[in-house]
Amino acid sequence: MLGFITIRPYQLLSLLRPGLWISQLSGLCAQPRPRPMANSSSSWELPLVAVCQVTSTPDKQQNFKTCAELVREAARLGACLAFLPEAFDYIARDPAESLSLSEPLSGNLLGEYTQLARECGIWLSLGGFHERGQDWEQTQKIYNCHVLLNSKGSIVATYRKTHLCDIEIPGQEPMRESNSTLPGSSLESPVSTPAGKIGLAVCYDIRFPELSLALAQAGAEILTYPSAFGSVTGPAHWEVLLRARAIETQCYVVAAAQCGRHHEKRASYGHSMVVDPWGTVVARCSEGPGLCLARIDLNFLQKLRQHLPVFQHRRPDLYGNLGHPQS
């Protein structure tokens, strides 16, 4: 049905005793993967999430068509929540084009996604929407807004990216996000979803562990970093940063990414993935557009936090109070 989509192998995130195996659904193969603890529940009872990888262009309607096909496939496979990457709506050729294509949250494009969520009965993490805020007329700048929709199509959370990517990396097109984008002023409290409590972030936020620790303190069980990493920083930092954020917060980390060449000026690394709280990459896409799936085991998360209680060992007297994750 969706010939251009490759469904990547995904892991059943069961908690196994050390030395036992975890199944990987790729034909009938299995790979040895040591795990720290035992689990009493069947992995088939665990919530399934889908991570969508796309190559956005300046064509908004074509981008929506691509994303919608992936979301429908995710719903067909039984996912309760689908994650889309930063700039799922479009990637423009320059700041002027980016501003001209932007919309408010009440615009037509978000309306199409709310209808899609209702149609599929699935939650959607829309990882980075070019939002014309209420201050658009005064500032002529937009927000990089992570929007979370429930399965009825209602907006249940919005997070505006707080760390803007102003960087110059040799071999990569310079980024000056602040030229067209305003930083958000606050974090969003973690949101309860069918997969667990989700803490919202966007791309460059991944380089700031204080943000992830603050979300974990506030109760997050899943951190999500929708991104558009470049072809230079991607191979060097992408997986390392995602695994580090998972290990230090003892959260699942879900990272939907842009991939491939968007236009003549920009390309992205891809390699969307899900990392469990032990730091294991349990699902990933490769370079091209596609979909990967993972099951979220909150029992594993709670047992890991119990057996390795790093938040109880923190020293707020030395470096500030980030506390213990809420139960």
TrEMBL record:
<feature type="domain" description="CN hydrolase">
    <location>
        <begin position="46"/>
        <end position="298"/>
    </location>
</feature>
<protein>
    <recommendedName>
        <fullName>Deaminated glutathione amidase</fullName>
        <ecNumber>3.5.1.128</ecNumber>
    </recommendedName>
</protein>
<dbReference type="InterPro" id="IPR001110">
    <property type="entry name" value="UPF0012_CS"/>
</dbReference>
<dbReference type="GO" id="GO:0110050">
    <property type="term" value="F:deaminated glutathione amidase activity"/>
</dbReference>
<dbReference type="InterPro" id="IPR045254">
    <property type="entry name" value="Nit1/2_C-N_Hydrolase"/>
</dbReference>
<dbReference type="InterPro" id="IPR036526">
    <property type="entry name" value="C-N_Hydrolase_sf"/>
</dbReference>
<keyword id="KW-0378">Hydrolase</keyword>
<dbReference type="GO" id="GO:0005739">
    <property type="term" value="C:mitochondrion"/>
</dbReference>
<dbReference type="GO" id="GO:0043605">
    <property type="term" value="P:amide catabolic process"/>
</dbReference>
<dbReference type="Pfam" id="PF00795">
    <property type="entry name" value="CN_hydrolase"/>
</dbReference>
<dbReference type="InterPro" id="IPR003010">
    <property type="entry name" value="C-N_Hydrolase"/>
</dbReference>
<comment type="similarity">
    <text>Belongs to the carbon-nitrogen hydrolase superfamily. NIT1/NIT2 family.</text>
</comment>
